[in-house]
Design goal:
about 130 residues
Length: about 130
């Protein structure tokens, strides 16, 4: 088994923490998060399903970090590249085509920045591994 680099471990840990923080918003307190961000539509199932997705991503990033296997880590980095890219595309579509409140639009842009940073960080780490 090939060990992963310290940089890769740090990135996996950052991915896990970010996913688990946002999981709380979408899975545990979705209605509160919706009200704070002034979202356009509240569908509790969708918000919680998104939260569960984040929970799974967070758990498996943490698992790859703890096991330290290079192949598992690279797979999680691949997911960490593709998943933020897809969500970024959806967010940009949302900003262009939906009538959003200023609060929600700002929240979406902040999320886009976080996703962009995570995606670039994952890509760089994947390239260097």
């Amino acid at each position: 088994m090939v060990e992963i680099s310290k940089r890769c471990k740090i990135v996996l840990l950052i991915n896990s923490v970010a996913a688990l923080i946002f999981m709380v918003f979408y899975l545990i307190i979705p209605k509160l998060y919706f009200n704070i961000t002034d979202g356009p539509v509240f569908d509790p199932y969708y918000w919680r399903a998104f939260g569960v997705t984040l929970l799974v991503l967070g758990i498996f990033s943490l698992r790859a970090y703890m096991i330290g296997n290079k192949e598992q880590a690279k797979f999680m980095l691949e997911i960490g590249i593709i998943w933020p890219l897809i969500i970024l595309i959806l967010n940009i579509w949302e900003l262009i085509f939906l009538d959003l409140s200023l609060t929600y639009a700002i929240n979406t842009w902040l999320n886009n920045i976080i996703l962009l940073v995570l995606g670039i960080m994952n890509f760089y780490t994947y390239y260097k591994e």
